[in-house]
Write a structure and sequence with these properties.
single chain
């Protein structure tokens, strides 16, 4: 696998983690940073969920394309 695949896979994993944590525990921003950017409205949390979901889908799709490109380049007799 090329380095590009691993960068895309890690980016997908990080955005997935951010998505899940924000859905499960929306107050993490206030607890970690000591600030309430939307004054309890929840709009910042939903923005983070939306952006991380889009990033997760895009980076997963790009990593999958890279995975398939690598798999298609191999022949049956390759040992690697």
């Amino acid at each position: 696998m090329r380095k590009r695949f691993w960068v895309e896979a890690i980016a997908s994993g990080c955005s997935s983690l951010l998505f899940i944590v924000t859905l499960w525990w929306p107050d993490w921003i206030e607890l970690c940073f000591g600030a309430d950017p939307d004054h309890g409205g929840g709009s910042v949390e939903w923005l983070i969920v939306a952006v991380s979901a889009v990033a997760m889908i895009l980076t997963f799709a790009i990593a999958r394309t890279e995975w398939r490109r690598n798999s298609a380049g191999r022949t049956v007799g390759d040992a690697t």
